[in-house]
Amino acid sequence: MSSQLAGGAVMAVGIWTLVDKSDYISLLSSSTYMVAAFILIGAGAVVMFTGMLGCCATIREQRGLLIVFFVLLLLIFLLEITAGILAYVYYQELNAELRADLKERMVENYQKPGQEHITRAIDKLQQDLKCCGSNSSADWRDGSWIQTFADRRLVPDSCCKTPTEHCGLRDHPSNIYKVEGGCISKLEDFILQHLLILGSVGLGIAFIQIVGMIFTCCLYRRVSARSFHQCFSLCSSVFNLQTATPGGKTIDFAGVDDSTARWVQEFSVKPYASPAKLESIDGARYQALLIPDCPGALNDLAHSGSLARILAHFISQQKPVCAVGQGVAALCCATEESEVNKKWIFSGYSMTGPSVFELVRSPDFANLPLIVEDFIKDSGGSYTASIEDAVHVVLDRHLVTGQNMQSTSAAVNNLILLCNSSR
């Protein structure tokens, strides 16, 4: 929905630049302005279509649709960059073009047979912008119009403050618009305003399209292959990803089976498969934090000072945070110490995580360093859970938690919606 709204907004800006005083465009010798606007309209249409395709691709996890989605994202980026650059270049050339061509187009084509659109544009320009002539009203003393079509008038009737038939016989300032700089200065100001908006929207949306939103996936030791796969598939089709692990250690996937083996193999050779060091991550550079189901979180992330620092920033800035399954244990590190006591920053939050009934099935249950359910309850949080292996997600403010690996898709979709609503 947010992609469709963004696409509609981009189309609206492009259409507005063409429709608002559209007659003026015919006075420009260059078609750059119109091309930039049409490109932005096309980009908006593609954004709307891509938004719907992206939803289908992520929900169904169809590889073919995802490939098409990536290609369309690239096309959108190129279209919007092109529109923005064209607008910027034309912005630099506009003054020279107007001074070189506007006077000739006005005095040579006004009321000339076959140039009715130019005549309408000039009349509208002079009336709307309250000006007369390209540089001044004296411009109308030269050219074809004064010699052929003026009928004793000194200026066109549209120069008059109160237009009536043959009111252009008098060119006194009390009768016609005489402004410093003529219509050139006013038309230049008008078009520059539109170009600034056109360029800003084109480059701004392109930047957002590329940068999108950066997710930090905090991982350690063994990470559920299925959970990570689902997180990556849902997020990478819309956003750029940055993975991070303590010390930048290589991701070690757990539970690799026939459904994930090939994906894990393909992922391992990609550039983004090399994690950044969690210790070097600056939370201010990122818009969302995603921790998939990872058994290793119990042993390391749950006590990570680096992650505690990042989480403290995210909570203070109310940025979206999502943790799934045993990845919820990573949230336990976020404590604040005072002279009186130690307080968990998620105290008072409603959340979920692996239930005792799910954990007890593990042969290592007796050796687990932390029981998430007990920690949440003992630290002032509100814990809920569904039956074992059921999908269960809790959303409280900007925190999304999923009970288990089966809750990954639902939790991540909620995170994406939360991020879109906060833009």
UniProtKB/TrEMBL annotation:
GO terms for biological process: cell migration. Keywords: Cell membrane, Glutamine amidotransferase, Glycoprotein, Lipoprotein, Membrane, Palmitate, Transferase, Transmembrane, Transmembrane helix. InterPro entries: Class_I_gatase-like (IPR029062), Tetraspanin/Peripherin (IPR018499), Tetraspanin_EC2_sf (IPR008952). The keyword Lipid metabolism does not apply. One of its GO terms (cellular component) is plasma membrane. It comes from the Eukaryota. The keyword Secreted does not apply. This is Glutamine amidotransferase-like class 1 domain-containing protein 1. It comes from Anabarilius grahami.
